[in-house]
Fold this protein.
Amino acid sequence: MLPGQAAPGWDDGMTSSFVAGDEKALAAAYREFGPLVHTLALRSLQDRSSADDVTQEVFIRVWRSRSSFNPAVARLPAWIVGITRNAIADAQSASTREIRKAIAVAGDRGAGETDPGRETAEVLADRLLLDGELERLGEPQGSIMKLAFFEDLTHEQISRKLELPLGTVKSHIRRSLTHLRSRLEADHAAP
Amino acid sequence: MPHLDPDRLSLLALYDNWADDEGREHLRSCAECQADFAALRRAVDAMKTTPDAADLEAPGPHVWAGIHRDLGLSRAVQNDPLATAPDAAQLPARTPLPERTLRPVPRPPQGGSAPVQVPARDAPRRAAWWQRPGPWLAAAAATLLVAAGTVWTLSRGPEPVAQADLAPLAQYSATGSAAVLRAPDGTRSLQVKLSKDEARGYQEVWLIAPDLSRLVSLGVMNSASGTFEVPAGLDLADFPIVDVSDEPLDGNPGHSSVSIVRGTLTS
């Protein structure tokens, strides 16, 4: 994956076929995102058969509620990730309170030992959620964040390069990071 | 020490090597700042790191079978999409066509008839769908209608049977529309109108299958608009996506995988 490019395999041209009810577009979405959805479910629920059920449920919801998908709010991959998170939460709340507590502890990001599969799935999912957000920040915020993320420029270097006051660059960085954080915490209106 | 101010916390989250020992010390002892830091850091990680998709675990074939059954999908999509997809990572960025399938293709004259496999140019590491091997309709079936005027010489005007709004893909801003017109003699043509010609190389017009596995070249478009003959017998329902690509002058007849605009025909 290239920097800033969340889903190179997913073309927005497919999204209109999907919304129009083309079953082949659903199959393409499954091919593209099935492994990610399944891994997110597996790592959260720690049970293969529950993860299979959630994966199935996600794509059934995705298809049945495609008319509620709003491309102005999020790209299709981000919407699918949102639905996945909701379906996982539903599966968790269907379990008993005790199990839910255990999952909450086990599922705490960054807690304890690292799990490469979970880590990968979570970062990929986050990346899909943030896809396109740098463009949505507007300018000069988008340029500032691209220079910081992808060219590793310090805020002093960015300030010189874009000829902006240092304090302005700093406050753009703060506001932009806060915006990205809130996008990760929002649910993208997923059913 | 008071809590870290938000600007400082952002810089700490953004730069691993940001020299602020006092700030990092505070993070270790303050749960509140640490929680804010972790949330910001999550966004930074998502933007900066490149996860390895090989760590993902694909669902078994019974999962798609369940989806297929529950939704009552058609037989056309019965096979597990994950089972039929070849490993794209093992494919070259542009799959060369076997020699025997090459036929004259509408191309600007550029000498030499044999295709040359060209190194991938700034292509995504993964091959796009249409770069995976698949049944190719001979691009030669599509004939470039050089003189758009031939359509208009007919006594009655052609009627539109399908149209598409064309929206820009990444890095481009052109917009436009496409319409399929049917002449009284039954021949169909695709009329493409863009707001501008944004190609770095040249524009080529394609009709593509919904799953992007097959595509038909309709020809070269050297300006912001053009009209192209649709191959007789081609079912537009099988190739509903209108695509204008940016093609380099590299002699490779395949789609460059760089699309300028795209849209789906509806009647």
About this structure: Chain A has a mean pLDDT of 79.
